[in-house]
Structure to design on (1374 residues):
């Protein structure tokens, strides 16, 4: 079931297997039957590493969610807490343990910290007087999670907030550690490029960690040639724009988390004959989305406008394949047909699912509201009227559209105008406070702090220069048969992608001017490979690393 | 060569030999009487605690390492840890740890209750987890600690009917569990963490009597039981199944010691029993030490090894042996004498095509021999035989030669480690080097590392680390730091923090700090710096490492150590630490957060803090006073907008409270927009109007609001009046759309005439008046609008109630014409 991880150019299954092995080893350390108490946040990321069956093989009989009060009863020898190192969780664990001791005394307690054990938390447990109750206190290093065949993710959704708003660089430390793990498995990455303060910090930590491990030289032939570290604040524009690929739209509308999406059930009701659809399913339909599904792999990155054609083409192929059965005459032919049947049926149900999803999305993308919103976004990105109050935004506020939509547009205008005129900014802010409530003064304050929203300080707006130099806007984006990345936003080419492309050819030296306009330093580091590995390198891969941005910066 | 077998004694099918290892040179007045003796396995050191006068003696085989006055309480048991430290278990349950040179390291206790009940007996044992201690107390309870480096005391359950100490007991390690096997008169029990089970060894004759002595083999696999009738039962220790043998020794006195003597792959396991004056030739009391492959016998004069003669040695040296190895040895001897008999012997081996086997036998036998000249002659013979082989893999020969050279070096009486080859293999080279290092044979250890070509970070670096740690006991700080750095330099994998920790242990803090500077790993630096109370330095090192958990750890430590003022000042110089601490305060200590902002004169954050706090307040006046504080701070921060917005909010809150009191409108906490909405819904138009003016709400938004609200309440007349009140800032198309949303086409139509020319077509379309739309579009000569109308026509064609007057083509043409 993790086959999709090995399809890519780099076999990410190695990473997953390493993670699974470590999990098994930990579970075996606690002999006997076990129950796991989960920090709920972790269940998603863990789902990408190990299914319940793996846990079951290692005598995990029960699973609970961590909550205060008394632990549910279970006839098991071991209770294992899988938690993030957070103080508030330690207090809950302490309470669990306290309540427990009075009832049974024979259950053993263990803690597994993900992704790193923390002295601070252990100290807290000690203060609470329960540290001694734990037989094993261990850490499970889960930094980079193989998400798909060509994608690793830290699934660390508060990283942006922590780095830019709270000046807490824990996530960067984990990033550096994760990259060290990656290098331990896939060889030292000889070249590191980066742009931005955080990128610089991560690179520094990596180099420092390498010094710390001096002596144990990595003898693996490097799989990755180049590592590119980019700060999110180098490219704030891209995540603000509405995504227009198939996968992007699913995410915009329904939200994909840890590789799963929850969809409204009505469209997916089983239509069985003879059985009147008396009760529609009320539970949302949960679907896993990754490249293991052939059809999805094909259409996920297509512009939504090209998805319809792809789906109908696929439908023809599948029905043609089913028609084959009429041509099957001999026993041999029939046998061959039957052997392909499961595959064809899977393809057919996959097609049905995606057709339903595409219909759901189409209802929205063809609406006038969606179109108007997109028009405004594209105006901003092309630099039209970014310096005055936008009527569409004004109207949307008056209509009390969702706040997140308003904030996205206002921030986008600010980014494309290199800050808003004080008068314009204050007008928007006042409108938002009056309509959505005064408490959002903190939200706005946070947005200003991270630079998504800012008053114009200099009269010069360098966004147009950046746009022109990096060709961020392409007039004739071809959505059906793309020849340039700008197809993903029907015209806008993401800044971070352009930086990556320029780095690959002809190199960043050609865009020094633009790099200086973007925040933070840019740099280049080389890591010495052990002698003997130099000559063997043939394949060149590059790996880019970007930080995910969290848009909800509300704070109360 | 016959003399080699001179000290062999047959027992059953195997032979046993006793090899003299060393002549002991300790000066004993009373021999080993009145003293506790413990020797570590694998040729380890010997410790002795003499009861009168209280003196402790530590020695390695021959040389005495240290003698020191024993000042603590009476010792019950001595033992050695895996890292060659001496454990002294005292009567009151405290355990003292000394290093090889007699200096005190640390101590711990086996539990409070032991202080009163006293330790009756104790045993030190080794398991995969490390060195453990088991005691039985005066109240007949057992307490176990499986690893003294990670002390977790386990009190075992009570044994039924046990008074005082059991007649005998041993510790077993099986299935990752440590258990105690004990006998109390005729009963035999296994005691584990949770239960006490009575067991009966199979096949032990009922008249055998009660068990008075027991012994478990080195590997915990075999068990020997001795009964008061002189019966000796042996068997597998696992669940006490499988009896091996039962012998009647005809001895009714309890042996003083009973130890297993067997080797891995032994032909027959056997047990050595020792009574006073029996079995030993000398009348002196001796001590038996069980080893992996034999028994070490320590007396006041000699140290000897009793072991089963390895099969391969038997084959070669047995009188008149025809084994290929024996023949090869003979051949080589003849060759030395330049006798042609050498050829005869060789031929004989070759005819059986056993030459390879012969060489292998010689090499293996050499490894088991203790005497260097015997080793030499065997190896020479092997080397001689090798010449006649074409495809012999020399690896084994070479490695055996190297290993023997190392073994002979450590067996030297100046080093005094009587290791056998089997023990060496089991113990591994790593451990050997460590043990040499514990005894401060740095030179020898480094020579061995170089000789065996061990990678630096496993070998030399480790030795250097120990050397540097030990070096600190003399010389000045500077010179040591320099000396250490010169020698150790950048050897990969040397842990400077470890060296520094040693320096600190010796009370040389400054030196420790100097040494720590060389440490690359911050994670290692910080805890030690904290221990040394160099917290500021620890903080900056933690920040440097980027590990936020480490920073947090130092910060919490500082917080408890320092007074508040100093603490805040320290943080101020470390922005990273400060922001982490702020985060901590946000979650845990809101008040401290305020103090922090106050100290930094961060008015903006302070204002935000007040705003946040205001939302936690239930009572309106407290809320208002908090908001007032926020206004003051925003003003200080020169943020006019925020100050104004906050004042507005206060005004709004007061207004809402007033209306809530008057009309029970339930407005408090709503946004301005929502308040106006609620007011309109309640029909309080005047009040809504007042807010609109007071808060300078943009006309557009207010019009939208009012329009929607009136339509929702279906007050169409009111709406019409409103539309005429002045020129609509949102146009009139909005009116049409909102009316249509409420399904009132009649009302919608009223506004069609009012829309601007640009929106005419849209307006007509909105009320589904295609005809009007078409006319308007033609009038405006606008292509795309025409298209919009046409597309609507097609969707409704045939089924729709309204049909266009003209066919498409005509409309299109007309449009084009114009």
């Amino acid at each position: 079931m993790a086959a999709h991880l090995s399809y890519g150019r780099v076999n990410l299954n190695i990473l997953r297997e390493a993670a699974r092995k470590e999990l098994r080893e930990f579970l075996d350390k606690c002999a006997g039957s076990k129950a796991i108490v989960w920090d709920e946040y972790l269940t998603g990321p863990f789902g990408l590493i190990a299914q319940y069956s793996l846990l079951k093989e290692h005598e995990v009989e029960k699973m609970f969610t961590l909550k205060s009060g008394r632990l549910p009863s279970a006839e098991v020898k071991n209770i294992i807490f899988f938690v993030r190192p957070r103080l508030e969780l330690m207090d809950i664990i302490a309470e669990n343990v306290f309540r427990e001791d009075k009832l049974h005394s024979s259950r053993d307690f263990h803690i597994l910290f993900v992704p790193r054990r923390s002295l601070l938390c252990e100290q807290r447990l000690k203060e609470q007087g329960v540290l001694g109750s734990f037989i094993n206190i261990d850490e499970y290093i889960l930094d980079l999670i193989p998400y798909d065949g060509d994608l690793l993710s830290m699934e660390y959704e508060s990283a942006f907030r922590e780095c830019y708003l709270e000046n807490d660089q824990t996530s960067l430390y984990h990033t550096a550690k994760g990259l060290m793990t990656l290098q331990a498995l896939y060889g030292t990455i000889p070249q590191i490029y980066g742009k931005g303060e955080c990128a610089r910090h991560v690179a520094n930590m990596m180099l420092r960690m390498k010094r710390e491990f001096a002596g144990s030289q990595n003898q693996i032939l490097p799989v990755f040639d180049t590592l590119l570290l980019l700060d999110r604040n180098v490219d704030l524009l891209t995540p603000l724009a509405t995504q227009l690929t198939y996968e992007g739209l699913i995410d915009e509308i329904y939200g994909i988390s840890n590789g799963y999406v929850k969809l409204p059930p009505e469209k997916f009701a089983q239509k069985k004959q003879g059985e009147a659809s008396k009760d529609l399913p009320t539970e949302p339909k949960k679907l896993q989305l990754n490249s293991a599904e052939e059809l999805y792999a094909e259409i996920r990155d297509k512009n939504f406008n090209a998805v319809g054609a792809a789906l109908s083409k696929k439908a023809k192929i599948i029905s043609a394949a089913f028609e084959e059965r009429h041509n099957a005459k001999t026993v041999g032919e029939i046998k061959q047909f039957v052997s392909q049947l499961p595959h064809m049926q899977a393809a057919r149900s996959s097609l049905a699912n995606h057709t339903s999803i595409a219909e759901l999305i189409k209802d929205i993308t063809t609406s006038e509201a969606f179109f108007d919103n997109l028009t405004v976004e594209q105006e901003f990105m092309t630099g039209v009227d970014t310096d005055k109050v936008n009527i569409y935004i004004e109207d949307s506020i008056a209509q009390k559209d969702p706040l997140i939509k308003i904030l996205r547009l206002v921030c986008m205008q600010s980014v494309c105008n290199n800050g808003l005129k004080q008068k314009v900014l204050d007008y928007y802010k006042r409108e938002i406070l009056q309509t959505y409530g005064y408490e959002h003064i903190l939200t706005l304050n946070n947005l200003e702090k991270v630079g998504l929203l800012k008053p114009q300080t200099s009269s010069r707006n360098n966004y147009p220069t950046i746009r022109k130099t990096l060709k961020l806007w392409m007039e004739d984006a071809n959505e059906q048969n793309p020849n340039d990345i700008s197809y993903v936003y029907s015209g806008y080419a993401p800044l971070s992608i352009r930086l990556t492309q320029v780095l690959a050819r002809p190199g960043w030296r050609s865009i020094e001017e633009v790099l200086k306009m973007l925040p933070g330093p840019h740099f280049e580091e080389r890591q010495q490979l052990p002698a003997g590995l130099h000559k063997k390198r043939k394949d060149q891969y590059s790996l880019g690393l970007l930080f995910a941005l969290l848009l909800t910066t509300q704070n109360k | 060569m016959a003399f080699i077998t001179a000290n062999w004694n047959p027992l059953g099918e195997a032979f046993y030999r006793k090899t003299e290892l060393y002549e002991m040179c300790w000066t004993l007045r009373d021999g080993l009487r009145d003293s506790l003796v413990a020797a570590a396995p694998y040729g380890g050191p010997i410790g002795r605690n003499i009861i009168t006068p209280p003196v402790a003696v530590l020695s390695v085989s021959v040389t005495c390492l240290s003698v020191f006055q024993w000042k603590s309480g009476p010792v019950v048991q001595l033992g050695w840890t895996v890292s060659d430290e001496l454990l002294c278990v005292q009567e009151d349950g405290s355990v003292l740890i000394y290093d090889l040179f007699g200096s005190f390291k640390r101590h711990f206790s086996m539990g409070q209750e032991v202080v009163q009940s006293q330790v009756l007996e104790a045993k030190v044992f080794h398991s995969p987890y490390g060195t453990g201690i088991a005691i039985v107390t005066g109240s007949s309870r057992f307490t176990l600690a499986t690893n003294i480096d990670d002390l977790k005391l386990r009190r075992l359950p009570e044994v039924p009917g046990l008074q005082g100490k059991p007649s005998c007991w041993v510790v077993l390690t099986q299935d990752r569990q440590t258990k105690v096997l004990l006998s109390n008169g005729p009963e035999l029990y296994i005691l584990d963490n949770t239960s006490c089970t009575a067991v009966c060894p199979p096949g032990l004759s009922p008249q055998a009597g009660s068990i008075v002595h027991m012994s478990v083999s080195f590997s915990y696999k075999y068990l020997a039981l001795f009964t008061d009738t002189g019966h000796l039962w042996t068997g597998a220790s696992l669940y006490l199944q499988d009896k091996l043998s039962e012998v009647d020794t005809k001895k009714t006195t309890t042996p003083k010691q009973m130890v297993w003597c067997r080797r891995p792959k032994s032909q027959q396991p056997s047990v050595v029993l020792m009574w006073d004056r029996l079995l030993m030739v000398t009348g002196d009391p001796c001590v038996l030490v069980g080893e992996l492959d034999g028994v070490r016998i320590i007396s006041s004069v000699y140290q000897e090894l009793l072991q089963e003669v390895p099969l391969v040695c038997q084959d070669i040296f047995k009188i008149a042996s025809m084994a290929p190895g024996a023949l090869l040895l003979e051949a080589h001897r003849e060759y030395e004498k330049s006798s042609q008999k050498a050829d005869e012997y060789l031929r004989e081996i070759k005819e059986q095509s056993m030459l390879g086997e012969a060489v292998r036998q010689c090499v293996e036998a050499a490894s088991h021999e203790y005497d260097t000249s015997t080793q030499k002659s065997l190896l020479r013979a092997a080397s001689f035989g090798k010449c006649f082989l074409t495809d012999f893999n020399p690896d084994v020969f070479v490695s055996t030669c190297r290993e023997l050279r190392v073994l002979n070096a450590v067996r030297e009486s100046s080093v005094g480690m009587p290791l056998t080859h089997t023990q060496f293999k089991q113990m591994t080279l790593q451990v050997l080097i460590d043990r040499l290092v514990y005894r401060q044979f740095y030179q020898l250890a480094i020579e061995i590392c170089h000789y065996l070509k061990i990678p630096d970070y496993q070998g030399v670096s480790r030795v250097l680390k120990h050397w540097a740690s030990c070096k600190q006991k003399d010389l000045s700080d500077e010179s040591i730091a320099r000396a250490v750095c010169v020698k150790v330099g950048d050897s990969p994998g040397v842990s400077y923090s470890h060296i520094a920790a040693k320096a600190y242990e010796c009370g040389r803090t400054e030196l420790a700090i100097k040494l720590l500077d060389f440490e690359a790993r911050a994670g290692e630096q910080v805890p030690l710096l904290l221990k040394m109370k160099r917290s500021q330095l620890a903080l900056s090192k933690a920040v440097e490492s980027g590990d936020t958990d480490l920073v947090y750890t130092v910060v919490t430590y500082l917080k408890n150590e320092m007074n508040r003022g100093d603490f805040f000042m320290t943080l101020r110089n470390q922005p990273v630490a400060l922001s982490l601490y702020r985060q901590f305060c946000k979650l845990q200590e809101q008040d401290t957060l305020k103090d922090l902002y106050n100290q930094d004169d961060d008015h903006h954050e302070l204002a935000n803090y007040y705003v946040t706090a205001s939302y936690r307040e239930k009572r309106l006046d407290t809320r208002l006073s908090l908001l007032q504080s926020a206004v003051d701070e925003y003003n200080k921060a020169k943020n006019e907008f925020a100050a104004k917005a906050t004042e507005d909010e206060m005004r709004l809150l007061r207004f809402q409270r007033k209306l809530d009191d008057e009309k029970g409108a339930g407005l408090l906490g709503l946004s301005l927009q929502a308040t106006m909405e609620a007011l309109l819904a309640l029909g309080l138009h005047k009040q809504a109007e007042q807010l609109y003016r007071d808060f300078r709400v943009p006309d557009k938004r207010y019009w939208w609001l009012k329009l929607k609200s009136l339509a929702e309440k279906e007050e169409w007349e009111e709406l019409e009046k409103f539309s005429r009140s002045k020129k609509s800032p949102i146009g009139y198309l909005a009116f049409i759309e909102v009316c249509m949303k409420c399904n009132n086409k009649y009302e919608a139509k009223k506004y069609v005439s009012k829309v601007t020319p640009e929106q005419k077509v849209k307006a007509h379309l909105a009320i589904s008046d295609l005809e009007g739309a078409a006319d308007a579009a033609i009038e405006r000569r606008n292509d795309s609008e025409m298209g919009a109308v046409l597309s609507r026509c097609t969707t409704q064609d045939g089924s729709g109630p309204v049909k266009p007057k003209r066919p498409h083509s005509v409309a299109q043409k007309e449009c084009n014409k114009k």
